[in-house]
Each structure stands twice: as C-alpha cells, then as structure tokens.
TrEMBL record:
Domain of life, source organism: Bacteria
Taxonomic classification: Bacteria, Bacillati, Actinomycetota, Actinomycetes, Streptosporangiales
Region named Disordered: 435-461
Protein name listed in UniProt: Putative coiled-coil protein SlyX
This protein's UniProt keywords: Coiled coil
Keyword Coiled coil: yes
Biased amino acid composition, Low complexity: 447-461
Any coiled-coil regions, as ranges: 25-55
Length: 461
C-alpha cells in the first residue's frame, strides 16, 4: 500500500467523521424540535379542555337551579343525564392531561432551550463545513497529476492538528456538557449561570455547560470549569462572558473595542475581560476569583498578564465603580478584598504586583460606562446587605428588581459566606433555592407573570 493511497484513506475517514458530527448536530436539533412539538400539542389539549369546561359550566349551573331553570323544559331525561355527567368527563380528561404533563415536563425542563442551542449548532455546522471544504481541497490536490506527496502529508498532519482536532474536542465537550446538563447533574448551577449570562449578554446569546477547563473556545458556549461546578463558581462565568464581548461583540462594546487594538493582544484582552466582569458583577467576581482561580505564585504564559496583575485590575475596577455612582457604598468590601489579597501575597512570599497604568484603567472604566453595559451599581449594595442577612437567617427575601436579582443574590451569598464561613453549605443551599427556576420551568423573575417585583425603575438599559 503506497503513501498516496494511505493518505487518501485517512482523508476519507476524516470526511466520514465530519459527516457524523454534522449528523449528530442535526439529530440533536430534531429531537428538541420533536419535544417542543409534543409540548405544544399538550398545551393545545389543555386549552381545548379548558374551553370545553367554560362552555359546560353555565349548563351545570342551570341544572343545579331549582326546577332546572331554562333546562327544565327539555323533558329528555337521557339528555339531561348526559349533560349532568359532562362535568365529570371533563374533569377526568383534565386529570389525564395533567398526568401526561407530569410525565413529559421533567424531560422538557432538562432539554436545553432551542433558541440558545441554535447559535451553538450554527457554530459547529460552520466549523465542520469549513473543515470539509479544506479536506476536499487536499484530496483534490492528491488526485492531481504531479502531486507533491511529502508536502501533502505535511499539510495533512498540520491540518489535523490545528484545524480538525480542536473542532472534534469542542464537539466532544459540547455533547458531554449537554448530557450532564440534560441529566440534571449540574442543571441548577447551569440554570443560575444562564440567568447571569442573560443579564450580561442578553437572552439566548450564550449557554453554560460543565467542562474540564473554562477556556473560551466556542462563540456561544460559556464553560464552567472543573472543579467550579457549584454555586460559588458561578461568578467565574463572568470572565468568559467578558471574553465573548471582547472577541465577538464589537457592536455591544464599541467604546471598549475602540480603546483596545483590533484584534487585541492576548495580554490586553485578558485584562479587559477581567475589568468587564468586575464592572458588571461587582465584588462577587473578586471573591470567586481570589478564592478559586487566581494563583499569585504561578508562572504565567509570556503572552498573558500574571495573576497578580489581573487581581490588581479587578480591585481597581471595583474602586472606580462606587464613586461613578455618586457614592462609595461598598468601599469597605473592597478594603477587605484588598487586605485578603495582600495577605495572601505575603504568606506565599510573592512580591507586590506590577503597577497598572491608572489612566488606562480610568479610560477602560469610562468606555464600559459609555457602552451602556449594565454595571454593578453601588445603589444595589443595600439590597446585597439585606439579602445577606436573610440568607443567614433563612428568611424570605425582600422584593428585588428582576434584572438585577441574580447579581444581587450572588454578591449577597459571598457576603453571607464571609460573615459566617462555618455555615457555607447552609448558605449555598438557601442561595440556590432563591436563584434556581421553580417547578414551572420559569426563572424566579418570571413568577409574577412578567410584572416587576419592585416599583423601582431599573437603571440603565
């Protein structure tokens, strides 16, 4: 078997694998469309039964009146008996439809919303389509007369390593993350993260999935890196959302992207992502990063800023946030974070971090404000403190502005944890209870039928 034939076999296998990935994506879409059709049909059945019940109700009321009211003139006992039994039949149908919903709805709740998945499938389809095009070009060159076999072998090896393998890795992580999410193993954490992403990026813009690492790789996937698959790790998704804005949403953050070089260097992009996450999420992002992610003494890649500099960027953005709102409501919280980080550096024998250009930080903060991204407001800090008290006591939460609810509660959870670290698990359970969706599959903000939970006017857009 010669080298040309072997390479042809490998290319054919690669093309077949791409077809399998594309087919699996199509199958995933089809299954979710079928589930939606079933739920729509069930809703139509419920509506029909409800309409029938509303028609039968006046008849039943007439039959219940002394002398049968207007129906007393029917003089047809079989017909009267049938009408009398109608309510019982309607109730039986309602009960059966309700039992069907009880069976189907848990499956539907675990299926990722189709609107969110559309962008993901488009990403994978586009990637596999591009790979197929390049693989077919290689095969055409292999079929041509005078093909340079050594060069084609080198081209194939480079193509597989740099183009095909990353798509396959993304596909495997995508499918595995969906399976974990659909099985409800990490559904509650993903659901809360989705609420946060909706607040940061808008509805149906990104989907959170469990992953081995949080490295950003797909346009609409926010990875929850292991071992951060818990309520305390949810704020870490804000950095991935920041990466999505910096990399893909130039229109959403025009001023920010004008400030950065296009494309931004990895160094500048990472700092901008941390700045945006701290700006939008507030102290909870710093608490989560300092507790779970940043490693002061770890060597950094030459193209990326050290973790000490990232911490300084986060703290600087929090320092700028309060005065920008005309008040300094959480200055004490930032002081505590500063002391925490400084003490950690001292314990690990790490020298003070490099100095950030203060003018760059101010211009970065100004750009985020001018882009009208919904930042964490110092005006919400009173709600954070109140909710932290309620989380510690187990009380019912006060009304909150729906759009800020998830950010307020994540900050409140970290404040409560800092106050009483021995009750971390209790606080986490209460926090999750208030954040996750209820039995209807709606978010906590939707339970009022779309009405705001407070009369306060939300700030910003």
């Amino acid at each position: 078997m010669d080298g040309k034939l072997i390479l042809m076999i490998r290319l054919d296998c690669l093309l077949a694998d791409l077809d399998r990935i594309s087919g699996a994506v199509t199958d995933a879409i089809r299954k979710r469309e079928h589930m939606r059709e079933v739920m729509d049909a069930l809703q139509e059945a419920e509506n029909a039964v409800s309409e029938l019940a509303s028609i039968a109700a006046p008849i039943g009321q007439e039959l219940a009146r002394p002398g049968k009211g207007r129906l007393g003139d029917l003089g047809n006992r079989p017909l009267t008996a049938s009408i009398t039994n109608l309510d019982g039949h309607i109730q039986a149908v309602e009960d059966r439809v309700a039992r069907i919903r009880e069976t189907i709805e848990p499956l539907s709740d675990r299926m990722v919303e189709l609107e969110k998945q559309t962008v993901l499938e488009e990403d994978l389809r586009a990637a596999t389509g591009n790979l197929r095009f390049e693989a077919e070009k290689l095969r055409d060159r292999l079929d041509s007369d005078g093909a340079d076999l050594p060069e084609l072998w080198r081209g194939y090896a480079e193509f597989v390593k740099t183009e095909a393998e990353p798509v396959y890795d993304n596909y495997v992580e995508f499918v595995a993350g969906l399976a974990m999410r659909d099985s409800a193993v990490e559904d509650s954490v993903c659901m809360v993260t989705d609420h946060l992403l909706t607040r940061m990026l808008g509805p149906h813009q990104a989907l959170s999935l469990p992953s081995r690492t949080p490295a950003f790789s797909m346009r609409a996937v926010i990875k929850l890196g292991f071992p951060d698959w818990n309520i305390w790790g949810v704020p870490l998704a804000a950095r991935e959302a920041g990466a999505s804005v910096v990399k893909h949403a130039a229109d959403k953050a025009r001023m920010l992207n004008e400030l950065l070089a296009r494309p931004p260097t990895p160094y500048a992009a990472r700092l901008a992502e941390d700045a945006l996450a701290a700006f939008m999420l507030g102290p909870a992002y710093a608490r989560a990063m300092f507790t779970f992610r940043l490693h002061p003494s770890a060597p950094s890649a030459s193209a990326l800023p050290p973790d000490t500099l990232r911490a300084r960027m986060i703290l600087t953005m929090l320092r700028l946030a309060g005065p920008a709102d005309g008040q300094d409501a959480f200055a004490e919280e930032v002081d505590q974070l500063e002391d925490f980080w400084t003490d950690l550096l001292r314990q690990l024998g790490v020298p003070p971090e490099p100095v950030l250009d203060p003018d760059f930080c101010r211009r970065l903060h100004t750009a985020l404000h001018r882009d009208r991204l919904r930042g964490f407001s110092a005006k919400n800090w009173a709600d954070v403190q109140t909710c932290a008290d309620h989380l510690l006591l187990g009380d019912t939460l006060p009304p909150l502005t729906p759009v800020d609810r998830v950010v307020i509660l994540l900050n409140a959870g970290w404040v409560a944890r800092h106050r009483d670290p021995l009750r971390t698990n209790v606080i986490a359970g209460r926090l999750m209870h208030h954040l996750r969706h209820d039995g209807t599959g709606r978010s906590p903000d939707a339970r009022s039928g779309g009405r705001p939970l407070t009369t306060r006017t939300p700030r910003g857009t």
